[in-house]
């Protein structure tokens, strides 16, 4: 039996995580997808709000279920997975064992981020804060400038397929 793969995509809003993650998920049979934004959709949003830890636990529960149900590939996109403490907490609360974590940090130039933010029609200010965070240790870093989401997904797929079981 092949070892399950938990594929984590992190990076700034508008860098292309959700779109490339959805393409990546669809490229694999026997796969599942979770966009962590679904678990953190609160108003007002404040990263320091202790109630968001419940969103982290919800992510862990969904990921645990997907792994328990024997999906071979579980694709998980989350801005907050950039933070070591938050990612580690999510991973620690996963109840399943014997799966492989493959992490990606997607990034781009500030100019590209501003353009994507504008095209998305987001009325909030385009923040560079997330873009300037250090990459999660051990993640594969993929620069998305000048690439389509399909090209980014293909680049990730080549790396994932290169991992042993």
Automatic annotation (TrEMBL):
What SUPFAM superfamilies does the entry give?
P-loop containing nucleoside triphosphate hydrolases
The organism's superkingdom is given as Bacteria
Q: Which Pfam families match?
A: AAA_18
Q: What is this protein called?
A: AAA family ATPase
């Amino acid at each position: 039996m092949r070892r399950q793969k938990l594929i984590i995509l992190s990076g700034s809003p508008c860098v292309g995580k959700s779109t490339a993650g959805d393409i990546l998920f669809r490229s694999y049979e026997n796969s599942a997808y979770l966009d962590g934004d679904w678990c953190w959709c609160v108003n007002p949003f404040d990263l320091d709000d202790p109630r968001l830890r419940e969103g982290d636990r919800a992510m862990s529960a969904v990921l645990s279920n997907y792994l328990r149900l024997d999906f071979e590939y579980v694709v998980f996109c989350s801005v907050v997975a950039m933070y070591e403490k938050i990612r580690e907490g999510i991973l620690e609360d996963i109840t399943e064992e014997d799966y492989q974590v493959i992490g990606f940090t997607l990034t781009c130039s500030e100019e590209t981020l501003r353009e994507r933010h504008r095209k998305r029609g987001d009325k909030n200010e385009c923040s560079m804060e997330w873009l300037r965070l250090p990459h999660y240790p051990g993640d594969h870093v993929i620069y998305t400038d000048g690439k389509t989401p399909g090209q980014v997904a293909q680049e990730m797929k080549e790396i994932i397929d290169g991992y042993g079981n």
